[in-house]
Amino acid sequence: MAAPKVLRYTDHEPYGGMRTRLINDVFFAAIEKESQGRLKVEAHWNGETSISYDALATISNGSKADMGIVVPEYTARQLPLHQIFKSFVIGPDHGAQQVEFFRRVYHDMPEFNAELDRNNLVNLQFFLGYPVGFFTAKPLKSLTDLQGTTWRTASFWHQAYLNNTGAKTVTLPWNTGITTALQEGRLDGLMVNLDSGYDIHAERAAPNILLSPSLWLGHVYLLTMNKKTWESLEERDRQAIQRAAATTQQAMGAALDNNLTVMVKTLEQEGANVRYLNKEELTAWQNAINYPQIQAQWVEKQKSEGVDNAGEVMQKVSALLAETRR
Questions:
Q1: In whole angstroms, how far apart are CA 19 and each of 11, 69, 301?
Q2: Which stretches of the chain drop beneath a pLDDT of 50?
Q3: What is the DSSP code string of 150-194?
Q4: Bridge partners (DSSP) listed for residue 210
Q5: How far is C-alpha 53 from the chain's CA centre?
Q6: What is the pLDDT of residues 270-279, one digit of tens each?
Q7: Is residue 121 within 8 Å of residue 182, measured between CB atoms?
Q8: DSSP category for residue 149
Q9: What is the pLDDT of residues 189-209, one digit of tens each?
Q10: CA distance linking residue 130 with residue 11, whole number of Å
Q11: Where are the alpha helices (DSSP H) in the chain?
């Protein structure tokens, strides 16, 4: 029997979280099973091969890694259309609906795969994360009136939305210094996905957390392969990877829901006061941030930079999201 073809994988996060376990224990295991051992994945975690901001270039080049995670938010210049997802503040309530939304995006909207193709990448499978939480030192009565408060969030969309509710946003490096700033009162709040907040133990300094499963805010991780590597695979092995992706998608919805439940319990055990936002609060937040205005400004900016189809694709994503949420 011929030796298996080894595919070198790079990931900026350590193995052990929800996403990395799903990748390793479900997707990679299924690739080896579906290929009957012809393919083997050699995983390099925790930025061993490439940090998150360099991953697209590393995988596109192909000399150090054949496949790996690309975070579109970190590569806005190369993947402008992929920034659209995070502009929609409220998504589906349940993991299975969120998975179905992104399955439809990559199946029905060729613009996104074309954008990856221009970067010498093929998308093998998408992965999703935890919803966003609002971490504050003092309990928040309302998300719609943050006048005079100071927040840290990374996304340019989130910064604009917080500004529209009266908040000031600041840029701080992502480390435990943020927790210190919350403790010292230099920051009033942190808007971030729950697991990242937990990673720096923001809940110890800002134990009041507001969240909703539908506040997913479109954070997607793309497990991509170097295009030449993909094209060099036998057709039966490409099909094996596609079957492994289908298996992974079937498992992902329940994993998202179950892991959110576990994460909330963990935060509560740390002493956090976790409260789920109701539909009225979510609607009020969505109205207060005036996201269509920010989206329109972004579309115009993209046009000025040569991305002529940004408005058209924004409308397609909006229509699909409305359909998925029904």
A1: 11, 11, 33
A2: none
A3: EEE---HHHHHHHHHTT-EEE---SSTHHHHHHHHTS-SEEEEEH
A4: 134, 275
A5: 14
A6: 999 999 999 9
A7: no
A8: -
A9: 999 999 999 999 999 999 999
A10: 18
A11: 18-21, 29-34, 55-61, 95-108, 110-117, 156-164, 177-184, 194-199, 202-205, 227-232, 235-269, 279-289, 291-304, 310-325
